[in-house]
Amino acid sequence: MSIVTVQLGQCGNQIGQEVFNAICRDVHGTHGLCSKKENKSYHDACKERFFSEEESEVPVARAVLVDMEPKVISQTLSMATRSGSWKYGDRSHFCQKQGSGNNWANGYSVHGPRHKEVIMNLVQKEAEKCDRLGGFLTLMSLAGGTGSGLGAFVTQCLRDAFPTSFILNHVIWPYGSGEVIVQNYNSVLTLSHLYKSSDALLVHENDVVHKICAQLMNIKQISFRDVNQVIAHQLGSVFQPTHTAEGGSHYSRNPLGDLMETLVPHPEFKMLGLRNIPQMPENSLAYSTFSWPGLIKHLRQMLIANAKMEEGIDWQVRPPRLGSSIPSSHSTTKPLHFNTSLANLVILRGKDVHSADLGSFRDSSLYTSWLNPQDAFNAWKTPRAFNKYEKSASLVSNSQFLLKPLDNVVGKAWNMFASKAYIHQYTKFGIEEEDFLDSFTTLEQVISSYTML
Question: For 228-239, how does the pLDDT look when each residue is reduced to its tens digit (9 = 90+)?
Fold first, then answer.
């Protein structure tokens, strides 16, 4: 099944281009450990997901690009074409001459309704090119105006137009230090609207990815492109083909459906986090060896201690004592900082993958008491290495990982709202105080649900 990617705003378009780059690099890389047959079936599965082929024989990304300013889209289109290995469709983008000025209401209430027909026509045409449509992956920021406001509006339109298709919103969480003064308002409004129309939200935090660039990738002057390449690598590690059945020989045909079935057992819990190890500069790979027991041990501790990267993990955090069924917010046995999970998916790629033992992720003390660990944990595997890493492991987790950042954003937005700061900038575009209150209520409920896991 095919995935149509919808790139929204500056952030979404720049990440989207890096995602397709990472996928192409992976497909065209040399993988001597795999048979020609294995490589061909991997290549075919990837192509069906992400690319269509037109007369030029250069794969064309199954993507729609939307921004209210032309500069980023023209750069994105030309960089893709210059790569020589793939390109965007000639008529798959939409832009205007005027942005949303970091105002969520402008993107949601003005640009969205005004350009709905053109944008949805582009999406419809892209969907019709798919033999079988698996769903939509939207890429967007929480903090700006176009990506967040227009992104929330477009997601709603996708849900109305394709009620049976899966929608996964990939969202970029803003830097805690602040990018724009109203970013907390924008984040609260975006998240609450996406929660109503999306099947799941896959979150990357800018602060975390920045740290990975500095500490793991050893980049001295970190650019947005560096950050986007780390994000793209992690997304590729999840969405490239895998065998979803134990010992399976066929690549999964329905990536978004499989992801939702595995990780979103209840509509109240839609927040997904992603960790990927190892992650290092390309020139260090030749001198590094990894074992499955070592990678799996690190990944499990990253999960339970809520560490976002493999450096600086708190190894003191341990699962709570068995037999405690008291909700975690009142529990006396739950260790400080322990990250309770609802569902986890581990994806292993590379040499000797079927020898890897993932039993430690089936430990019932890692999960909420109302789900059977056999249902809460899944593993996908492929012997094909990913992007020059002989062995690599990714973890997609529906857990309490975002509780603290979410609580912070809602708290800061509420403090501003209580003093009526900047509200007039939203009301002039038709977003009323009631809309803010509805958004706060929605997210307070999300916080409460995850706290009680």
Answer: 999 999 999 999
Please give the backbone phi and psi of residue 289, each rounded to the nearest 5 degrees, phi first: -125, 145
Q: Are residues 394 and 412 in the same domain?
A: no
pLDDT (tens digit, 9 = 90+) per residue, 334-354?
Answer: 555 799 999 999 999 999 999
* Residues 9 and 56 grouped into a single domain: yes
d(CA 106, CA 116): 14
309-344 b/e with 16+ CB inside 10 Å = b? bbeebeeebebbeeeeeeebeeeeebeeebbbbbbb
> Is 325 part of a structural domain of the chain?
no
Range of the domain at 226: 2-268
Q: Is residue 274 part of a domain?
A: no
At 179, is the secondary structure helix, strand, or coil? coil
Same domain, 212 and 302: no
Q: Same domain, yes or no, for 228 and 368? A: no
- CATH code at 76? 3.40.50.1440
Quote the CA–CA distance of 2 and 256 in Å, as a whole number.
Answer: 9
Please state, as a whole number, how many other Cβ atoms lie within 10 Å of the Cβ of residue 449.
14
Please say if the pLDDT value at position 31 is more than 90: no
The total of structural domains in the chain comes to 3
Count of helices and strands (H, E) across the chain: 16, 12
Distance between CA 366 and CA 413 in Å, rounded?
A: 32
**What's the whole-model pTM score?**
0.93
**383 in the Ramachandran plot: left (φ > 0), alpha (ψ -120 to 50) or beta?**
alpha
Residue found by looking up tokens 């986090």 in the block: 273
Sequence-distant (6+) residues with CB within 8 A of 158 are 6, 123, 136, 138, 165, 167, 197
